[in-house]
Write a structure and sequence with these properties.
Elements: E1 4-11, H1 13-22, H2 32-35, E2 41-45, H3 52-71, H4 84-90, E3 91-96
Antiparallel strand pairs: 1-2, 1-3
């Protein structure tokens, strides 16, 4: 069992609408199902599940910008006002406190 909580992000339709509107090459449209096909997951502080609202208030901008960067690396394409309210309107955030490592090998940092 790891001393981390797991945060899973599931995109809502407004996020997908932004992805499609911001796309500089709009030939390929993304739908909600495709966007959530491989939902982002983050290992976060192990107390975050119990105090998630407080954790999110401190960390939402880093989380939000990471999510935006996964779609478009050019910050000029990102929404100007990246608020906690907008993040919650665009994403469902699911936290789990039980994270089990089922691999009998050490965790390694892959350099990202």
């Amino acid at each position: 069992m790891l001393n981390r909580d797991l945060l899973i992000v599931r995109y809502k339709q407004p996020f997908v609408d932004w992805v499609n509107a911001a796309d500089p090459n709009p030939k390929h449209r993304v739908n909600l199902e495709d966007a959530n096909d491989d939902s982002p997951a983050y290992l976060i502080h192990d107390y975050a599940c119990e105090e998630f609202d407080s954790w999110l208030e401190v960390n939402y901008i880093v989380l939000f910008e990471n999510l935006l960067n996964e779609w478009y690396t050019d910050p000029a394409l990102w929404p100007q006002e990246r608020t906690l309210r907008l993040l919650k309107a665009w994403c469902d955030l699911e936290v789990h406190s039980m994270v089990l490592d089922c691999v009998d090998e050490p965790l390694e940092d892959d350099g990202y």
